[in-house]
Write a structure and sequence with these properties.
mainly alpha, 2 helices
Length: about 40
């Protein structure tokens, strides 16, 4: 736990940016699926 606490600041910044990219990708994926589903209806 001490290592995680000492590397807290840069690691959290990287994790937050990675989570933001993942959320953006998931949102784009869902939007694309919704658009394709609406087109097929």
């Amino acid at each position: 736990m001490k290592n995680g606490l000492t590397l807290d600041a840069p690691v959290t910044k990287e994790i937050s940016s990675a989570v933001g990219w993942v959320l953006r990708a998931v949102v784009l994926y869902c939007v694309a699926h919704l658009v394709s589903a609406i087109r097929w209806w």
